[in-house]
Amino acid sequence: xxxxxxxxxxxxxxxxPKGKAACRFERARGPWRFRDCLFLYRDGRIxxxxxxxxxxxxxxxxxxxxxxxxDGALVWQDLPTTATDVPRAVTGMDPGTLWLDDKPAPWSCxxxxxxxxxxxxxxxxxxxx
Length: 129
Known about the structure:
By secondary structure, the protein is mainly β. 9% of the residues lie in helices and 36% in strands. The protein has one domain.
């Protein structure tokens, strides 16, 4: 279970290194049909991207979450009705790793983004190294 300090840190985007725009967390590979990536931005915003695997791999959907709740709950905005197995809460956090919904599969930080222009996060907004 997350402590109030960890929730506050997530809401403030603390896992994102200074001067960077976001961290991309990806769920460990397993028996699921989709590749899910969670983006935690410097300002605390959260976005989920779901892609399919295989020969015809492509983006299935991308949704934003409302600010992280006081209990670590993720409330997705405009979630497709077919998306029933999306994460509902952040339940654990270590440096570079998140756990969602008390499931044993870790979500590891696979990339630190300097910018994400497609979503309004330019490099100069966060400064340079």
